[in-house]
Amino acid sequence: MTAAPVLTEELFREDATLLACEARVIAHGEGGVLLDRTVCYPLGGGQAGDTGWLSAGPQRWRITDTRKSKEQPGAIVHLMDGDALPAVGTAVHVDVDAARRQAHRRFHTATHLLCALLPYPVDGCSITEAYARLDFHTDQPFDKEAIQAGLDRLVAEAHPVRHRWISEAELDANPGLVRSMSVQPPRGLGRVRVLEVEGVDLQPCGGTHVANTAEIGAVVVTKIEKKSAKTRRVVLGFAG
Predict the structure, then answer these.
(1) Which residues, 6 or more positions from 111, have their beta carbon under 8 angstroms from its beta carbon?
(2) Domain spans of the chain?
(3) Which CATH class is domain 9-96?
(4) In CATH, 101-238 is 3.30.980.10
(5) In angstroms, rounded to a whole number, what is the distance separating the alpha carbons of residues 49 and 160?
(6) Cα separation of 186 and 202, whole Å?
(7) Which residue from 21, 30, 99, 182 has the fewest beta carbons nearer than 10 Å?
(8) Looking only at Cα atoms, what is the longest distance across the chain?
């Protein structure tokens, strides 16, 4: 398989704390603008896309969502408010909505803790600013209080969180690293990004995360649902 050329440099992959960058508009399309580089995470892997702002001098545009381009693989589309978009070639400053990004980082890392506490395949995931949910493929009942206690313990233990890259061959040799039944790691790039919660969890993931489980803070199990005979859903929210 030949990998698509990288049209948008994905700065968020290496540094989830990076909230701003300089970029250039390379195209219009799909309801927004494509940039040569960005700090905005696009919808994918169950995680919602970032929002934020573009600015060029006194002009300012609202980024309402961020998506992977369907028409130009390797590019990222920043959906915009209004019709008057910055012209192709314009140098722009990109700012991420910091509060939304931090919520995504906290919730996404918390879902990795859930995966460690509940050793079942994952067949659905949603990470938003307001909540996170994971669907587990099992018919076993879940104990809400036990899951909450496990989350509280792992957060308090302050485990370091880091990402690294492994080869596709390494992933093939360790198929148990893939927990998701519905989303597979992208192929054709020669390498796969994995997220490690030290001593707790290791699996492929391209999302944004905190650097230590202590940064997750107070998260609560708001709901346990039986979605089907073989699906149990856990929903998380922020305390308070």
Answers:
(1) 125, 127, 132, 134, 236
(2) 9-96, 101-238
(3) mainly beta
(4) yes
(5) 25
(6) 17
(7) 99
(8) 57
